[in-house]
């Protein structure tokens, strides 16, 4: 047959396959076409618009229907076919496309194909045949491809159109689902939502909008929406809700643009109710700046707000005062009446201060029992009078439900501008003045002055040196003998702390002990003195054999009350030095019982049960009470040097000392007199029945080596 004629067999095949449609048609076509041109593989392929990728939609592979796959055209004979419209490779296809590994895997040596064009002349697909050997009749194959391509093209177009319709249908279904979802979200949304058309006429609102504004959708449809805030950040609007409550709404408007238009087709306005959120934020802000119990400013906020007031007063040449108030013995109120009552006392005290001094904002809670305030345009005399009047009010009229006691207060004041022109400076100076008021015995008022400033600087200097150098480097013990007044023999010795330094920088024990007590270093000081003194007593026992010589050491109330394991720690130190608790007398001031009497009783009982002898130090100088020596496990009391100093010349001092000695005898307590400096004092004390004494008349305090030498040479040691 030549190219111009039609083979009857060919006509028969065309007639037969024309009965098929769809994918079945293409697969049948592929099979018939493979048989007609004796090819092992026939494929019908669609192309993407970029002619870079192909998809097999039907085909024949050595007796089986071809699988639908996608593959890139690059480096394949199909790429050449797509580019030129038709092509054929007889026995050399692998050499022409060495990177197409499928040709090798399928053992393909020959290839023939034709591009499918749609009615617009666009390349939409390919028909190709692959041979494992030489093409039997290339001309025949070309004729068949030409004639069949028209029918195949029509079917591929139909296939692609069907795919497009399917995609559109799926897209419509998806959009429908999205619309239904959007509608559900709109209906269920907690935020109010309003939708307006291009003319800014309201078309719909959701249920949340109706609830928020108390309006039905029918009442707002058709109304005008102001879109001035379009696409701007959210703003806060205030409305009155249907129930009359004032609400805060965060609102914003967005535009909906369709088909890349420059003007919005719809406008959507959102209303988010932030009333509770704003209320919570306001509460958090308030709590961060105000004391929750009293409603007064917190200290840092107070200091910050005071600054512009001070600047204004400075510009106009006016004065003022920063006053710091502290309720005396507030810890005892907490302990005996409970926290709730103590809180009420502090609250009532704050309100009374606010009313009396007529301050609204410039007042703050600066501690559990401390209130600070700033009074404008009052000089020192006027401030002193105001405080005096308030003290009288507190004494006569102040009351709090649940509290049937009386309170007193201490206060310290610094004046503006002479004591400082900044809030922090005034606060610091008033706190120093308050501290002085407390030291003066409480229930007093002190104004800041240069003496307080110098004392503070001295305090800070001592603390700095103790902190930088360490307790061990700055403090050392000296020892003073305690003698029996009857035999004048040394019975014990007391360890006393001294400052290590040159004469110009020497600091008194009273100074550095006070610094240690107020800074927490007192524990380190007490531990050092106890350790060094115990080691010294051990040395005396071992080298001199004075087994009955005892040691007296001072311990701070803070050490006993704040450390639950203090008894065990002391016993551990003694054990390391082959000593026992019976070798030690602990001297304690009355403050221990005053501040926390029940706690003090428990701790002192532990020490007494462990074997320590307990002594009240400086008896008679504080708030001495017979209840101390009756209730607490003391075995001795020390008569303060201030009473001993005048017993030779002052009848009242003599009577007082005699009374103390008699009281001690009543309770079977040993008495020890301090500060004995003359023979006359020693003789009087002995005559009054005092048991022991210490002072310069007998022996001065001595450093360890000197005192050791003194003991080794003194025949009057022990009983």
Distinctive features:
27 helices; 4 domains; 719 residues; alpha/beta; Beta-Lactamase
In words, what does this structure look like?
This protein has 719 residues and is α/β, with parallel strands linked by helices. It folds into 4 domains: 8-165, Beta-Lactamase; 189-279, PAS domain (Beta-Lactamase, 2-Layer Sandwich), CATH 3.30.450; 294-448, 2-Layer Sandwich (Alpha-Beta Plaits), CATH 3.30.70.270; 470-713, EAL domain (TIM Barrel). 47% of the residues lie in helices and 22% in strands. It is built from 27 helices and 27 strands. An 8-stranded mixed β-barrel has the order 19-20-21-22-23-24-25-26, surrounded by 4 helices. Strands 1, 2, 3, 4, 5, 6 and 7 form a 7-stranded antiparallel β-sheet that branches. Helix 2 packs antiparallel against helix 6, helix 11 (330-337) packs across helix 12 and helix 15 (450-469) packs across helix 17 (509-519). The N and C termini lie far apart (152 Å). The mean pLDDT is 86.
Quick recap of the structure?
This protein has 719 residues and is α/β, with parallel strands linked by helices. The chain is built from 27 helices and 27 strands.
Low-pLDDT stretches: none
Number of discrete helical segments: 27
DSSP helix fraction = 40-55%
**Mind telling me the CATH class of the largest domain?**
Alpha Beta
Shape label: elongated
Task: Quickly count the domains.
Answer: 4
